[in-house]
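Retry 2 of 3 after timeout on previous attempt. Resubmitting structure tokens to design endpoint.
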């Protein structure tokens, strides 16, 4: 597996190339406060779990464009977080406003992610149906928005420890993407983003007719190994469907 740094669209990315011909692209967006390299080690994990992925999966790890110097060197974000409101919602258990929130930068970042993936897909001569968007936490939210807002169906969505945003828009958009499979995971002891709101996101997508594999695990805000195993299986099925 060869890794290179390059600009796709307007995003600085690390691209991991497969051993043979690329048949699938997967983009993985990091969470708030992480660096652009935060999820890159997962590339080795995924290709170790599946020869199909080692041979045919191209992976993209974009770096969010907003620098968070107050959080330390390399910390980045797709949009600022309203920490006080998030904390109040977690303490009260009232997520009604949180799930309706539309970050001011959401549409811009969605378009930048879509442009980056589209550029590489065009280069590799792959349709959007062979592109999977995924991410962790804030990166999962961005990926969900991008999949649901797309005019064409993406090949899949992976949401690790994400949450429900933009409720009305996502509820309206989801039925147009019934063909898009979803892998969603969330820790039942997550103290950063509520498990209950992740379940609401699952219900929203499932009720719209989307096929959702939901994996709950007894940990916090993380990606456990068993979820990586399920991710490898999920991606392999999409790749082998070509």
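Retry 2 succeeded. Sequence:
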């Amino acid at each position: 597996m060869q890794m290179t740094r390059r600009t796709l669209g307007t995003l600085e990315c690390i691209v991991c190339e497969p051993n043979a011909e690329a048949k699938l692209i997967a983009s993985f967006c990091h969470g708030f406060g992480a660096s652009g390299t935060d999820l890159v080690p997962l590339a080795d994990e995924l290709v170790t779990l599946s020869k199909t992925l080692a041979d045919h999966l191209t992976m993209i790890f974009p770096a969010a464009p907003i620098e968070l110097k107050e959080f330390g060197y390399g910390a980045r974000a797709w949009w600022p977080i309203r920490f006080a409101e998030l904390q109040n919602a977690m303490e009260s258990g009232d997520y009604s406003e949180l799930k309706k929130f539309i970050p001011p930068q959401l549409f811009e970042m969605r378009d930048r992610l879509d442009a980056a993936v589209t550029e590489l897909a065009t280069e590799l001569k792959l349709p959007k149906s062979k592109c999977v968007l995924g991410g962790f936490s804030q990166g999962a939210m961005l990926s969900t928005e991008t999949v649901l807002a797309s005019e064409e169906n993406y090949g899949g969505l992976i949401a690790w420890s994400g949450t429900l945003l933009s409720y009305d828009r996502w509820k309206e958009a989801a039925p147009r993407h019934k063909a898009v499979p979803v892998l969603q995971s969330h820790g039942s002891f997550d103290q950063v983003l509520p498990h209950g709101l992740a379940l609401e996101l699952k219900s929203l997508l499932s009720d719209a007719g989307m096929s959702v594999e939901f994996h709950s695990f007894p940990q916090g805000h993380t990606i456990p190994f068993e979820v990586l195993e399920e991710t490898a299986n999920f991606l392999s099925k999409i790749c082998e469907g070509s």
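Attempt log closed. Residues 106-124 form the longest helix (19 residues).
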